[in-house]
Amino acid sequence: MNTPTPVLRLENIVKTFPGVRALDGVSLSVLPGEVHALMGENGAGKSTLMKVLGGIHQPDEGQVIVNERPVVMNGPLEAKALGIVFIHQELSLAEELSVAENVYLGELPTKGFGRVDWHELYQKTDAILAKLKVGFDAKTLVKDLSIANQQMVEIARALTVEAKVVIFDEPTASLTDAEKRVLFDVISDLQANDVGVVYISHRMEEIFKITDRISVLRDGQYQGSVATKDTDEEGVTQMMIGRKLDLTRKESNHELGKIALEVRNLSSGKAFNDVSFQVRSGEVVGFYGLVGAGRTEIAETLFGLRNKSSGEILLNGEVIDVKSPRDAIEKGISLVPEDRKGQGLVLGMNCRDNMTLPQVDDITAGPFVAEGAEIAIFDQYRDSLDIRTPGWKQDVGNLSGGNQQKIVIAKWLSMKPNVLIVDEPTRGIDVGSKSEIHKLLRKLASKGLAVIVISSEMPEVMHVSDRIVAMYSGRVTRTFECGEVTEDNLVQAISGVSKLA
Amino acid sequence: MKSINVKVLLKASPIWIFILFELVFFSVAGSYLSLSDKAFMDVDNMLLLLKQSAPIGIIAMGMAIIMINGNIDLSVGATFAIAAIVLLETMSSPMFEGLGDWVIPIAWGAALLVGTLLGAINGLIAWKTGVDAFIVTLGSMLGFRGLVFMFNGENPTSHLNWTLVDFAEAQFLGLHTATWFLLVVTAAIWYLMNRTVHGRNAYAIGNNREAAVNAGIRVGPHMMINFMLIGFLAALSAVVFYSESGSVNPNDGQLYELWIITAVVLGGTKLTGGSGSILSTLGGVIAIQLLRKGLGHIGADTSTVNLVIGSILILVLFLDRQINIKGREELKV
């Protein structure tokens, strides 16, 4: 064996939280100069493992070995001192502070008596920013940056120390293609300097493009590592969920109804401009674009959360004016929001009460809520949407992501909408439940509902939609019919390339 | 366009424009309504105003840090009263009788030490128990005030030292001693918050606590230091004020916390933390003192003054929201 010594090894890591064995004897090794993908469904233990690596959690059993020396890390700074840098998935930034202060957060350079050495701070940060080829400087306030640029600030942190291992947790979630290229350059630079890179992502095309090895976790257990060139998407998926996934899509064979929703030249401030589209009942229309392209903002405007500055919204041929979400619901427009836990559910409430929340005013017997009517609604949608829960008394917080999402969808379906808008329906939901949600959306359309699906995942929009509206920077660049869409022309449409052509 | 310029100006330094407005308003209104024939903008009057701003202003600097850090301290008024009692009791204590005026530094030191300790108690409890600072200091506000009453019942504690009175009434370069203390404290806190690692970390913690923790910043010790600092400043405020007055009532300092928080919020510091400016806090303090004095000048009584200040606080925060909103198309709340 002439393999190099790993820069980092994990041996039989066990981490338990009250009631959960989050990591169950996980072993992993990272070689210098390799890009090592860590994959697994949500809840498989990836984040916990990375927090152990980043010094945020301490393992109950097992050892972390850096350069063949067992180490104990109490806190992120100790991990960083050992050369382990963690680039967080959520933007972990203090927005009111400058870029430089964020890049060196927790270890600002000083010049005695705890005074910040601003000169050194700005100089070092600007040097890093130059490497990243970004268009802002060290003194910019983070709150003035776009989400993508904020992510670049996060990435800049990786370059502050002589890293031995850099962990990227879903780094591309909000990056444009150009920025992704810069990120991949950064990663190959790190590789060239014999740094081990751990790369967590759900995006298969990235995994197969940049990684050397793939390790898979399932339910806190290590499923093995494979060389990337020896496997394919199907193989990895099988390791992740333990079975094969049916991705074939049956062409919709039901008749489309009349136009349920039409939007003409709709604009709202800087968010989006001159947007027109139609949705027929029985049709699923996908909205695809990068983060910040204005998709969510359109949904918010349709749902009365945001004022339009010009344009018209027509529902069943009539011009309507949506003043508030209540107004939208009454007119038959429902929105399943992007952030399931934050905006869609009351996690500490049981399944039934979550489902009937928007209409609880209406199902009353005298001054009291009619329990029987509530349970009837719950039973109906549990069966029709196949929601797996021990009973209506279960707190929603205890359900899996897929079932939580179904509860949210059921909640809005029970309001009997004409138009259902679903924003990122499968974010944070594992692969198996994803296809179930997709089937559900198709089924709802086949029953005559007009469905709008907003998604950042290309396979998802391509799989679920009858037509796809591509957006770039607040404008519709192209509307694709089912037959004409390919990955290539879709990517071009959302990155603004086809507009130039 | 003119309206845009006004908006930009308001955004940049709203509190100083508000002060300017107050000055103009009270000068004009005063010339019609005031009973005294002195102008409102009289130099002596303004110097006195700064001096009167000092007790609240000195503590407000500490409160600004605490609030930028993402906490709040309701116990400052009670700490203020305890420090005052410690100051006066030490000076009248038979133990130091032979020392003459050398008792002054001892008494000052004792008061400042006690204030710092009380702050440390708040900080330690909030840190180690994880209970929200609002609750912790609500409890200590009641507790500390209880201590004040336990000490001397309903009776005032008094001791007048003429050397101290002379010191407190002195004017250097036209400004009173108390004003100098306020200015020095403001400068020191400004330096602390803008130039030191501790200050920048305090901003980071208030802004995004999780990010700070992820970056390895130890939230607890920073919080502890800030609470000790505000305790120290509450005591310093008492020391400066009671050196001159020489008598403390057990109810002194009550509602200080609310005036102070009002001043800090008027100065633009967010209740949620992470954002705020020390200089604007000084502006907030002066703005409130101007309101109280100005309304008195045109003949309003105390209850009217409170009503007006309360309304203005809400109005200012509403205007601030309107100005900072990015447009009509913003997401509704």
Automatic annotation (TrEMBL), chain A:
GO terms for molecular function: ATP binding; ATP hydrolysis activity. Keywords: ATP-binding, Cell membrane, Membrane, Nucleotide-binding, Repeat, Sugar transport, Translocase, Transport. It is a peripheral membrane protein. Its main location: membrane. SMART domains: AAA. InterPro entries: AAA+_ATPase, ABC_carbohydrate_import_ATPase, ABC_transporter-like_ATP-bd, ABC_transporter-like_CS, P-loop_NTPase. Gene3D superfamilies: P-loop containing nucleotide triphosphate hydrolases (3.40.50.300). One of its GO terms (cellular component) is plasma membrane. Residues 8-244, 242-498 form the ABC transporter domain. It is found in: Cell membrane. This is Sugar ABC transporter ATP-binding protein. The lineage of its organism: Bacteria, Pseudomonadati, Pseudomonadota, Gammaproteobacteria, Oceanospirillales.
Automatic annotation (TrEMBL), chain B:
CDD domains: TM_PBP1_transp_AraH_like. InterPro entries: ABC_transp_permease. GO terms for molecular function: transmembrane transporter activity. It comes from the Bacteria. It is a multi-pass membrane protein. The chain crosses the membrane at residues 15-35, 47-68, 74-91, 103-127, 133-151, 172-193, 223-243, 298-319. One of its GO terms (cellular component) is plasma membrane. It is found in: Cell inner membrane. Keywords: Cell membrane, Membrane, Transmembrane, Transmembrane helix. Pfam families: BPD_transp_2 (PF02653). Belongs to the binding-protein-dependent transport system permease family. AraH/RbsC subfamily. This is ABC transporter permease. It comes from Marinomonas hwangdonensis. The lineage of its organism: Bacteria, Pseudomonadati, Pseudomonadota, Gammaproteobacteria, Oceanospirillales.
